[in-house]
Design goal:
By secondary structure, the chain is mainly beta. The protein has one domain. The protein is built from no helices and 4 strands. The strands form 2 sheets. Strands 1-4 form a two-stranded antiparallel ribbon. It starts with 17 loop residues before the first strand and ends in a 22-residue tail after the last strand. The protein binds FE2/S2 (inorganic) cluster. FE2/S2 (inorganic) cluster (FES) binds next to loops.
Amino acid sequence: MKKIPPPDEPMYQRKIPYLIKAAEGEPLAICRCGHSKRAPLCDGSHVEQPGNDTPLAYTPERDETLYVCGCGGSKSMPWCDGKHEECPWW
Ligand code: FES
């Protein structure tokens, strides 16, 4: 299989997802532009990016572990869908 370069967004330079230990009722803003320096949480970088891809506002209904894509290959952004196992750039 031909290797292609990974997406150039800083958030998507991993072969594995980010894990967030989320607490019930605590609101989160999850980056969807890929340029946050606080990945996987939003740092406001989307306002300077083409497309202005706003963060996902998410408030857990219970304590849970969230898996946020770190490879850029998920079809269910911003969530990991297991595609990092098949990403052609890794
Ligand atoms: S880290 Fe991207 S699909 Fe899992």
